[in-house]
Design brief:
Rossmann fold, 6 strands, 30% helix, globular
Length: 225
């Protein structure tokens, strides 16, 4: 569905496209409610499931780059990412992609403490694959996002619909602010234009009404509030 108006206010020229990138072991349908919110606000969105469990982060980013070059051409690109989707977008630096603004929801920008603690667990390696193992190490070589970006972190430590929060998420100490999967400190990144914390759990932070409104505001205006 394409809206008749351009929420960026640019007017003439190629219409902008919002790229929605899901997290590890998820599918593009996990971003469906956020996509509906953005379309209602006048944006056109693009989302596609990438094989997050079967390839390293760099290879996933290369595949997504090719998809976007084919789908977007020279259109201005915006993005809202969830979890590892934020790490993928940091690698989408092909100069042919015209990035404008990016919102990162609960991204493990500093790597994942939980993943690091499970790196030697055979089930973890089998289920989450090479990308999951990549999140377990400190990421000194990960590039910064290719456009001005905001980070929104969740702070709800426990939720029944977030299995991590009541299993391995219990490894966080009592004084460590986290969303049941990623610590707030792990989401922060040098150079971010804006940062916010919300009472939301990791798994479905993208469905939180406040998060949806803040995301759309940053895409449109470059501010979260």
């Amino acid at each position: 569905m394409t809206s008749r108006h351009d929420p960026t206010g640019v007017g003439d020229g190629p219409r902008p496209l919002v790229v929605l990138l899901h997290g590890l072991a998820r599918r593009h349908t996990s971003m469906a409610k956020l996509a509906a919110h953005l379309r209602h606000a006048g944006w056109e969105t693009w989302a596609k499931s990438y094989p997050s469990r079967s390839q390293p982060i760099e290879e996933l980013a290369a595949q997504v780059t090719e998809w976007l070059l084919a789908a977007a051409g020279d259109r201005p690109l915006y993005a809202v990412t969830h979890s590892m989707g934020g790490i993928i977008v940091r690698h989408l630096r092909d100069p042919r992609l015209r990035w404008k603004r990016i919102v990162m929801l609960a991204p493990p920008n500093q790597g994942s403490t939980l993943a690091a603690g499970l790196i030697d667990n055979p089930f973890f390696g089998w289920f989450f694959g090479p990308a999951g193992r990549g999140l377990a190490s400190l990421p000194p070589a990960w590039p910064l996002p290719p456009a001005p970006f905001a980070v929104i972190a969740g702070t709800r430590r426990f939720a029944l619909h977030n299995p991590t929060s009541w299993t391995i998420g219990r490894r966080f100490s009592r004084d460590e602010a986290n969303d049941g999967t990623v610590a707030v400190r792990e989401t922060k990144l040098e150079g971010m234009s804006a940062f916010a914390e919300v009472d939301a759990t990791h798994t479905w932070i993208m469905n939180d009404a406040r998060v949806q409104m803040m995301s759309e505001r940053f895409l449109r205006l470059g501010v979260l509030s």
